[in-house]
Fold this sequence. Notes:
globular, Rossmann fold, six-stranded parallel beta sheet
Amino acid sequence: MSITGAHALVETLILNGIERAFCVPGESYIAVLDELRSARDAIELVVCRQEGGAAFMAEAYGRMTGRPGVCLVTRGPGATNAAIGVFSAAQEGIPMLLIVGQVAHQNIGRGAFQELDVATFFGGVAKRVIEINHPARVPELIGRAIDVAISGRPGPVVVSFPEDLQHQVITAIAAPPIQPAFAAPRASDMELMVQLIQNAARPMLVLGGSGWSPAATAAASAFAETFRMPVTTSFRKQDLIDSDNPQYIGSLGPGADPELVSALQTADLLLLAGATLGEVETAGFTRLSVPDPAQQIIQVGPEPSALQQAYRAVLAIVSDTVSFFDAANALPALAEVPWAAETVSQRERYLAFRAPRKVNTEINMGAFWSGLADQLPPNTLLTMGAGNYTHWILRHFHFRRFGTLLAPICAPMGYAVPAAVAASRQFPDRLVVSCSGDGCFLMNGQELATAAHYSANILFLVINNGLYGSVRMHQELRYPGRPYATGLTNPDFAALAASYGLPSASVTTTAELTAALDPMITNTTGPRLIEIRTDPEEITPAGSINDIRKKPAN
Length: 554
């Protein structure tokens, strides 16, 4: 069968279950665009307004589906704009393909228009960089890219595809779909784990990482309930367990409950399922001794490179989470669980921490996020980028189902808006709530145009305090009373949304917020936006700027 290199690319994507791709169009891959036009009944092309937004959408797709999120960009400016999505996917192990239309093969190295040394630029970020050097190898190399992206610890693969090779005719045979490779725990691993748990007095289960599924989270909850083990999650992984599960005692990360930190430090056994204890979870590696903590560690991860990055484990298990918990749930229950009463106490302390504190402001953000979970459908999907506004969400919102939080652990600003568009295209019948600060929103606010184009069922919430709040908080911690470069001049966000044809409101009081919110939750006909103007003095869920200034610097 004679086809072009571009046709072989698109056909390989479709054969591997890719039903959606994201792009900003460029002349360096117009042959691929033409093939996508012919295949538009099999693969939807979501056209975005900036490559950073397109790359975040592809990353979100990979996060939601477990299949590679595909982003197509032109060389030079397009590829470099998309680098943030590749970085985000690499940090967390999210499958992704960034396909870069490259200069003509014969002109590589001549400094052609917008030429980029793709391998050098992405070599330190992507899981792998593949450069297509012959059109006949397109099915092979795209298949390899998919295999690398989904196997072991998933990650982003960048493919450089010269524009002349896209047009060339080849004879190709359709390859079978790629099947991901997984490892599973050995019987000896599970025997040793049982011994370690039996000998423990204060064990703790930490959930985190990527590659989870509804089956894996259900199995993890079943294991925790059988062994009555307290459960915490690593940074931004709250949807791995129902917030109402009696074993759940909170999440590690910025603003973590001091009682949870104490429980982590006094535990004698930590079972890390998919999770790593990184700088965020350990407050700069200060909560546990590096590299040999007082706690014994059992760590489970999809490949050896994902294990023991900072802390040595007494037992390292290479396995995906489903296989691990299936094996763990086949273990016999303990005759006695000496830590059961302490788990109950830890749960009670967490519930006290989760309760919103009283504030003298027009809108209590803790109370808002705590109550919002009960107003939204249980399968509502939240997206968020970075900033202090996220601390209220992560502390007070009740996550009850897996797959309801899109929030990269590298905490990139500008993620929430494009991720919400990707989520809405993937799950058009579900409500998506995009949560951004004022600084965060304008990083990729142009994708409102994409949301409007697709009539996406998204409620955009913009928390506007006129600050780069996270940086301001750290300034007050280190240099009290000396803010600099953190004040913002913002547009009228409601008016901006209206210019895209979106229903919108701007609120400053709880009464206004309630009046605006109710109809926008029940409205499912398209995107809408609420700008919530908050008091910049209330900088964190734990205290105000004035409270921070009273504390001694670390």
